[in-house]
Design goal:
Layout: H1 3-26, H2 28-35, H3 40-54, E1 56-74, E2 77-94, E3 103-106, E4 111-115, E5 120-126, E6 132-136, H4 138-143, H5 146-166, H6 169-193, E7 200-204, E8 216-219, H7 222-238
Parallel strand pairs: 4-7, 5-8
Antiparallel strand pairs: 1-2, 2-5, 2-6, 3-4
Helix pairs in contact: 3-6, 5-7
Length: 239
């Protein structure tokens, strides 16, 4: 090529490149449309992997209080003990269960549909510092281990009652709503940031639409719940 034209052509190319850079920088949306831009499927896939890496999501938490009473009779005497037991329950999603097939993009309606895992109940975490036990055993308590047996029976019934309260329709509904909002927000924000302004994310549970809703229960057995609470209280006392 003639050297007289090489330098002007090179300068012109640089000017065009700089001008194009300015245009691209100020009109990102147009550039994305011209050169393809980010794809919703790619962004959703990246969001999926990010959420899977989080492992577990605590969507909702609540505290419940159970009041249980046990009685026993021996040798013509009776004993009664009452236990007031508070406990915290977490409603979690195991995000590692999300699979690529659970996330589908509908380009015609700009809708991302997500099938999320079921809510899992974790706990209860018993608060031994707030436990109250009282009752009157009289002679039977003196002569036997009635109080100890009644306390053990109360604890088993109390933790079961906490689980029953946690799995009731109202808290489960609140947990599902919170989980739905969290999943939809997590997928929608990256799409909105990428320029998909009219995107809609719809998250559903596998059992939605069924007359028999189900969920996994990761409740701790009452012996383990009590021991864990005792361990935490002992650790706090050593601080």
């Amino acid at each position: 090529m003639d050297s007289r034209f090489t330098k002007p052509v090179a300068i012109l190319a640089i000017v065009v490149a700089l001008a194009l850079g300015v245009v691209v920088g100020t009109t990102t949306g147009m550039a994305d449309r011209i050169f393809g831009g980010p794809k919703a499927e790619t962004i959703a896939s990246a969001s999926l992997e990010s959420m899977r890496a989080q492992n577990r999501l605590i969507a909702f938490a609540a505290r419940y209080v159970s009041v249980t009473t046990s009685t026993t009779s021996r040798f013509g005497f009776s004993a009664k003990r009452t236990l007031i037991l508070p406990g915290d329950v977490r409603y979690e999603l195991d995000l590692s269960k999300l699979q690529p097939g659970d996330v589908k993009w509908d380009g015609s309606s700009h809708t991302l549909r997500v099938k999320r895992p079921e809510v899992e109940i974790a706990g209860p975490d018993v608060d031994l510092n707030a436990v109250q036990e009282y009752g009157a055993g009289g002679v039977l308590s003196v002569l036997t281990n009635a109080d100890q047996s009644l306390d053990q029976a109360n604890r088993a019934k109390a933790v079961a009652e906490l689980r029953r309260q946690a799995s009731a329709d109202v808290p489960m509904g609140l947990a599902r709503q919170a989980a739905r909002a969290a999943i939809e927000r997590s997928f929608a924000m990256p799409l909105l940031a990428a320029g998909f302004k009219d995107v809609k994310v719809v998250a559903r549970f596998p059992t939605e639409g069924s007359d028999e809703p189900s969920y996994m229960d990761l409740s701790t057995p009452y012996e383990q719940a009590i021991k864990e609470a005792e361990r935490r209280r002992a650790a706090e006392g050593q601080k």
